[in-house]
Amino acid sequence: MSRFRSVIAGVGGYLPEKVLTNADIAKMVDTTDEWIRQRTGIRKRHIAAEGETTSMMATIASKRALEAAGMEAGELDMIILATATPDLTFPATATMVQKELGMLRGFAFDISAVCSGFLYALAVADSFMARGQVRSALVIGAETFSRILDWEDRTTCVLFGDGAGAVVLRAEPGAPGMGDRGIVHTHLRSDGRFTDLLYVDGGPSKTQTVGHLRMSGNKVFRHAITNISGAIARVLDDAGLNESDIDWFVPHQANERILEGISKKLGLPKEKVVSTVSEHGNTSAASIPLALDVAIRDGRIKRGDLVLFEALGGGFTWGAALVRM
């Protein structure tokens, strides 16, 4: 069987123009800028304008990723879009992006794993590439979480923002080794026993409504530190690596306290952590590719660097991935 490695050839991101600061939210609910910053590290977040959809943001991020990769949409074999906020119940939002990009070949579909969605999509795309079934793929994380927030619930509405990030994967011959570019290893997990800690209280089958996000913050925090640390340990062990091999840590941007807790547990210095949570808030499936895009554009992450991704989302779903850029 042919073996190929999945190389990240280009990255792109998009954030809506509208910015909602902590001061703006303090006019809507009983909270303060200081209260939000102390508990989350968030200063502001971007909010989709009226009529600005998940597919629209995903398409812009995808075009930027394709440009960075020096590729045309017609060269893609596959699109996977991770989102918990699709444009419609069906068809898949990925097919809408496919149409807007003018991709007339291959296939496109959505993945729903909430904040872990980008990692799940990356792992699925890597599996297709490893078997030689596709030679190029677009992996997207895109969310309009502002549409499912209860703007009277100060414990959740302060946390989330909208945005999209995308990466172009290109298959290159050979299994990735220590010095080779590509996805080195991924590890995914889920545990449905904890659904009631982080969920949306609506859906077409059960309530015939969209619903709002509900979360037990303190309990999610504890699970996040434990589960994510375990996934990171597993992916490093499976790859035959350790924490000192990591050049950059690009975590899901959920909460500055979670980022600090995991980094401390791993023994990673703050200088190796890419954090955009203060500027973006939690953009769910979009947060990892958005943070990766920022760190590549500002020159921190360079070709050949070993990058660690991690995330935890409702379900619970969680996982980690190692990528040689």
How does this model look, in words?
- This protein has 325 residues and is α/β, with parallel strands linked by helices.
- The protein has two domains: 170 residues, 3-Layer(aba) Sandwich (Peroxisomal Thiolase, Chain A, domain 1), CATH 3.40.47; 143 residues, Peroxisomal Thiolase, Chain A, domain 1 (3-Layer(aba) Sandwich), CATH 3.40.47.
- The protein is built from ten helices and 13 strands.
- Strand 12 and strand 13 form a beta hairpin.
- Helix 3 crosses helix 4 and helix 7 runs parallel beside helix 8.
- It is globular.
Mean pLDDT score, rounded? 96
CATH class of the largest domain: Alpha Beta
Number of domains: 2
The structure class reads alpha/beta
Distance between the termini: 25 Å
Compressed to H and E, one letter per element, the order equals: EEHHEHEHEHEHEEEEHEHHHEE
The CATH homologous superfamily name of the largest domain equals Thiolase/Chalcone synthase
Largest sheet: 5 strands, mixed
Key descriptive features of the protein:
325 residues; alpha/beta; Peroxisomal Thiolase, Chain A, domain 1; five-stranded mixed sheet; 26% strand
How are the SSEs ordered, and which strands pair?
Elements: E1 4-14, E2 19-21, H1 22-26, H2 33-40, E3 44-46, H3 54-69, E4 78-82, H4 93-101, E5 107-111, H5 117-130, E6 136-144, H6 154-157, E7 162-173, E8 182-190, E9 198-200, E10 213-215, H7 217-239, E11 248-251, H8 256-266, H9 277-280, H10 287-297, E12 306-313, E13 317-324
Parallel strand pairs: 4-5, 4-6, 11-12
Antiparallel strand pairs: 1-7, 2-3, 6-7, 8-13, 9-10, 12-13
